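Hey, I was hoping to borrow your eyes for a little while. For a while now I've been wondering how a particular protein folds. The fold is given in discrete form, as structure tokens running alongside the sequence. Could you read through the record and tell me how the tokens relate to the sequence? Take your time with it, there's no hurry, and the full record follows here:
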Amino acid sequence: MTVGTPAFAKACPRVARAVLVAAACASTLAWAQAPRDATATERRVEIRADAKVTAAQRERLQRHADLGMDALRRYVWITRGIHNWQVGELVRQS
């Protein structure tokens, strides 16, 4: 038993191809969008001057803090086993 008509069988590959092209275009456009400006929506996060870190660690921490508080929290969480940092010890409270 066959399902559909010959016209449907011919249209199906065209529809599938159109859906595939649309999905490829949508994913390309999603990647091509400009990154959001963290400073426009979030307050600037600064590492405390009295934080007990080396100059290289401070630079790395500030680089993540410049991306926003969530990026800094994520970095501190990832490196917790190495440095044992707490976000409250690193960031100025305002």
User: Anything to note?
Assistant: The first helix runs from residue 6 to 32.
